[in-house]
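#struct-pred
JK: can someone run the complex with iron/sulfur cluster? inputs below
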Amino acid sequence: MSVGAVDITYRGIFQKNLAGVITKELVKAARHEDKIGGTVQRYGDSPERNGIPAKQFSVIADDADSLRVEMTKYEPSNVVVVAVMDDTLTKGVESWAWYGVRPINLNLAPGGTLLVISRRSAEELLELIPRREYAWNLAILPGEPSFGGLWVYNDDGTDYRTMGAVSRVAGDLVSLDSLLAQAASGQDGELRAEQLREGHDSVRAYPVDAGVGAEDTYEPVEMPGWTQMREGLVIPAVPVGETNPLFKKYTTRTARPLVKFDACVKCQICYTVCPDECFIPTPEGHWDIRYESCCGCGICAQSCPVTGCIEMVDEAVFDSNEPLHGVYENNREEYEELRQDKLAKAGGPIPHYGIF
Ligand code: SF4
Ligand code: SF4
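RT: done, structure tokens with the ligand placed:
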């Protein structure tokens, strides 16, 4: 008797349908090997909201009893693959109702594979992914995060490419042949087969030894019992000028606003439009950003009247949530160097970020 799981970690709204297709099709493909499976979801907030880190699992077993035991658990054990749909999620995920950020590879079984869709190198990703006490594998499927936008399913082949990659790194759980057989039984069989093979052939795996990776600075998350959980749908009020200490939404971010304070005309519009009260007044009239509370919606960058004053920059190039105006106050040239360095590492600002 054996059972294994594939964890699809994704961003709410944009990738919910993508995760749903992958988890269900993996289970259906496993039936071609006389296995049995089910799917289960975990999320920190409604996965219908922008950028929310969330998980869907395929649980695949050799027999019904093994599956039944596994499906009674909060989260499946023996997760042999964690597939990450957006590489900014490697900075940590909050898949339990804002109770704390956890490492992306926390539940990965020893010897398992963290499969990331990314244009980054293994070295770059290992600067973000914390080390483990056991050896594991990092696999990279070349590609951009697939953002369907709102509830729409973006049929760009990411789902079938990912499944093909899963069959390459965990062929014992579900094979490429089974996926091809399953795809042939549905619509667009030839196209799906092509995408499966492309994902299978283009994924690259890198063994990661125990102790290799970023320093693990994550605080252990204490999960409350059901009688201690906070009330749902209640956001406690806070005094003007403060932000809610319980509602830190930075793990939803794929990009963050970076301000060119020298260009700021101190109009206060960013402060007025920010839905999360992230902007902090400074004595000289600029508006600093409390990044812990910023969900990365981009509204401030769209609303700022000065071109290039607030730019949205890939979240992966930042290593701290500390506000940055203090650096500017101490040394304006140093701040400009920092800003340019982040922009260069990110390949420039993300144009037209947000909702238009
Ligand atoms: S991106 Fe801008 S407007 Fe949106 S939450 Fe962050 S600081 Fe506020
Ligand atoms: S909207 Fe732009 S110009 Fe206005 S205060 Fe904010 S950063 Fe400065």
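RT: quick notes.
Residues 257, 274-276, 278, 289, 294-300 surround iron/sulfur cluster (ligand 1) (CB under 6 Å).
The mean pLDDT is 91.
JK: thanks, will look after standup
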